[in-house]
Amino acid sequence: MDDKAYKRELWIYSVLVVVASIFAFGTSVLSALITLNSTLAWILSIASVVLFLFATVKFAVYLKLNSRQWLIAIVLLLLAWVGSVIYLVTRKPNV
């Protein structure tokens, strides 16, 4: 694994994660600005999840993670997801 190939893969991973974040963030921003078709909102949301999972798996395969490292990556992914859901569900609207 040379440094140039690693930097290229890291760059690709970063861009994919940013695009996935824009899709996820864009759904709420677009629906606040315009009347967003519910089908388009679902497509953007699903695309963001699929793109993030694809980027994570692609980069993990490149890094040649062993089974324990895969488990840790998946657990951290789920914890972040569950953590944000729990945080948002337990919040009360600001007045």
Name the average pLDDT: 80
**Structural class from helices and strands?**
mainly alpha
Query: Which word captures the global form?
Result: globular
C-alpha-based Rg, rounded = 16 Å
- Helix/strand order, N-terminal first: HHH
Number of helices: 3
Beta-sheet strand percentage?
A: under 5%
| Strands, count | 0
Unreliable segments of 5+ consecutive residues: none
Major pleated sheet: none
Helix content: over 70%
First and last CA, distance: 53 Å
Q: Which key terms come to mind for this protein?
A:
95 residues, mainly alpha, 3 helices
Describe the structure.
The protein contains three helices and no strands. The mean pLDDT is 80. With 95 residues, the protein is mainly α. Helix 1 packs antiparallel against helix 2. The protein is globular and about 50 Å long.
List the helices and strands and how they pair.
Blueprint: H1 3-33, H2 38-63, H3 67-90
Helix pairs in contact: 1-2
